[in-house]
Description:
The chain contains 13 helices and 32 strands. By secondary structure, the chain is of the alpha+beta class. It has five domains: 6-184, P-loop containing nucleotide triphosphate hydrolases (Rossmann fold), CATH 3.40.50.300; 197-281, Translation factors (Elongation Factor Tu (Ef-tu), domain 3); 300-371, 2-Layer Sandwich (Alpha-Beta Plaits); 378-483, Alpha-Beta Plaits (2-Layer Sandwich), CATH 3.30.70; 488-602, 2-Layer Sandwich (Alpha-Beta Plaits), CATH 3.30.70.
Amino acid sequence: xxxxxxxxxxxxxxxxxxxxxxxxxxxxxxxxxxxxxxxxxxxxxxxxxxxxxxxxxxxxxxxxxxxxxxxxxxxxxxxxxxxxxxxxxxxxxxxxxxxxxxxxxxxxxxxxxxxxxxxxxxxxxxxxxxxxxxxxxxxxxxxxxxxxxxxxxxxxxxxxxxxxxxxxxxxxxxxxxxxxxxxxxxxxxxxxxxxxxxxxxxxxxxxxxxxxxxxxxxxxxxxxxxxxxxxxxxxxxxxxxxxxxxxxxxxxxxxxxxxxxxxxxxxxxxxxxxxxxxxxxxxxxxxxxxxxxxxxxxxxxxxxxxxxxxxxxxxxxxxxxxxxxxxxxxxxxxxxxxxxxxxxxxxxxxxxxxxxxxxxxxxxxxxxxxxxxxxxxxxxxxxxxxxxxxxxxxxxxxxxxxxxxxxxxxxxxxxxxxxxxxxxxxxxxxxxxxxxxxxxxxxxxxxxxxxxxxxxxxxxxxxxxxxxxxxxxxxxxxxxxxxxxxxxxxxxxxxxxxxxxxxxxxxxxxxxxxxxxxxxxxxxxxxxxxxxxxxxxxxxxxxxxxxxxxxxxxxxxxxxxxxxxxxxxxxxxxxxxxxxxxxxxxxxxxxxxxxxxxxxxxx
Length: 603
């Protein structure tokens, strides 16, 4: 039986690129510590969302407390704080790492060090964590243990003298991991005082008990009936239950320094729980919160609309439910002339957007359409005010715009050497600036680029995978806002502006984008009894045009031979009739909803 002692507690996280075997290693550790019996085991235990299991990625972090009898005969409490691996959840990863003293770095023996691994390792190094390198999948025929070991030493700069090689799938070598965790990862620091300070590193929503707060206690003790206060929001609550994850929720009497667990406080809304916030006692609060807290701001925006307007209320309920489990999702109501009532949603990145879209379709069985993603531009107006715009409909009057700024990101791209030329071409096409190039080994390069975020969110990942035949990987972090020549590209059908197809675009890309939109619209808009011009305009200047030819009746079908002037007379009469019809306003173009849906789906 474990007796509480901070020297017998170990808190660690697992860092890995997507699909390097992080969740499978967690499964083996649960088996070794008998936290779950064989009959309760299934693959990827900690990934409880269907989408996570199917795609092999961790979307939601899931902590677990294990008790392990080490070779020295002592029983240790080992807290694994599982983290998401993807770039869109970097802030969550950084908070989870702040709750640990060490990290297990998992690298695939076949693929070697990847861009994502680099990003998360740097987060761990910044926090001065003890890092244990581990090479997984050594059973694969493509495994190259020595080469990957050299990469970890040269690229990341870690000592690999006592490197662990294992196969989590077969279970070989996994028994060494826990011993290394106990030997190499330091126990939590002894607290300076008894004042409660707890780091909130995650939360989820329970239908019956409200928001469950995941907390790592740094100092003090927290137990049932305590009156607590969240330092960032100032909200006060009574603790109804404290517990640990084993891996399911298991109530305990109290949480003490160094321990990881959850609090149930009957919090109605997850938006009230801020990741990175500090929990303290209401009566004897801490003077200063724990460092590193920041509010999560969405960087990518897109409109979500129900295809059937009667599903609007269902979509609203579904988004609210998703927001309860994901406080980073931003929602506001929006109306479109073409698509009716819907929502403007803010996401942390493209994967986050894709996950939410798929969850709405699967978990709530909704037929929905999503508009093309856009980023937040900053407009400085002539009166000095700064306006943030993510929707072309809110574009300010061009006469009062002083300058426009767009978000730029720092991108780390890892590619095989043979693809350097095509990668450089892609960088130029995406308005990127290559800052420096590093040689990782004789086969791989690490390129550091600065790119506009708007270029990343369109099709950068698809193009990178395509030109490198799937071997390229990239990771990005927000850099800064920079002045840019961003303009509104207005789309007109039959001289009338159509807002849903208009977009904010860089001046150099406006011509190509305009031609592309006009060509697509020509395919999806049905023909009428008169010619329909489709135009892309910047201000008053037309930059691209397509014309949908008219449906016309063959008025000369009854003319068999004879003089041509007879046919000309009939054609002239038909022409005048079409002109009159257009002038009288009978010839209004009604774009069917199917055309909007087809157009947005191709985007």
